[in-house]
Amino acid sequence: MRRDDLHWPNGAKxxxxxxxxFETWSEGKGPGYSPMATPLREGTEDRLGASWGEYGGRTxxxxxxxxxxxxxxxxxxxxxxxxxxxxxxxxxELNKRGHExxxxxxxxxxxxxxxxxxxxxxxxxxxCRVIEQTAAVRPVGWLSPRCTPTGHTAKFLAEExxxxxxxxxxxxxxxxxxxxxGALVAIPHSDFTDNRVLRASPRDFYQVxxxxxxxxxxxxxxxxxxxxxxxxxxxxxxxxxxxxxVLRYMKGFSGVWFARHDEAARWILExxx
Length: 273
Known about the structure:
Elements: E1 14-22, H1 47-71, E2 76-79, H2 81-86, H3 88-96, E3 100-103, H4 117-135, E4 141-142, H5 153-159, E5 164-168, E6 175-179, E7 182-188, H6 203-219, E8 223-230, H7 237-251, E9 256-259, H8 261-269
Parallel strand pairs: 1-2, 1-8, 1-9, 2-3, 4-5, 5-7
Antiparallel strand pairs: 6-7
C-alpha cells in the first residue's frame, strides 16, 4: 500500500498504536537482560533475573492498566500463553477493560526459528488456546519473541484465521500481506522500546517518542507510531512516569488516532480512505 493510498479515520494525521509486551519465561528463567551490569557465569541460576521478569505480571501490568485508563486508551497487549496461565486475573482484566489480547508465543524463550515447522504451528495453536480458555477471546494478532518469525509463520497465522502479523520492520505503515493461505496485515514493530534505556536515562524514552511524534506530525500527511513498553520494565515507576508524559503530550494534539492493532488492521484490509 502506497502512502498516497492510506488515510486514517476522520482525517487523522497520525495513528498511535500503544503496545504492551506482557511476557513470561519458562519456569526459573527470566529476560536475557536485567538491571545487573555483571552477568553470572553460564549455567548459574539467576533468581534475581527471574524475579525481575515476574514483576510484569505481579505489578507492572496493573500499573499500566491504570495509566491507560487515565488517558482512555485501549492498547494491544502481546502476551505469552504462559502469562495467561500464571496471571489469569490480569489477563481477564485486560480483556474486560477493552484491550486487545495478541499472541506472543507460549513463553518468551520459545524462539520460533529454533523449532521445526510442526513445533511452530503447535506453539501458535497452544498460545491461542490458553488465551482463549482464560479470557474467552481468541487472538487475531501475533508478534513473535524478539520479532523473529520463520518462513512459515505468516502462512500458519493465516491458516489459523489471524488478522495481523507484527514481525515487520520494512516500512513505516501497515500494509496488506498475501500468503498462500489468505491475507494478513503486516504491522511494523517499534524502533525504540522501553528496554532500550535500561543502561541510560528513562527520560530518553520520552524524548525519542516526542521528537518522532513532532517530526511525523509536522512533515507527513499520514503516519504511525508503534509506542511499545514491556510490563516488566515499562510498568515500573521510573518508566511508567515517562510513558505517562509521552501519552499526555500526544493527547494534546488534534488529528491523533489511538488505535489497537486489530482496529488498524481492519481499516487497512477494508481499504478505507
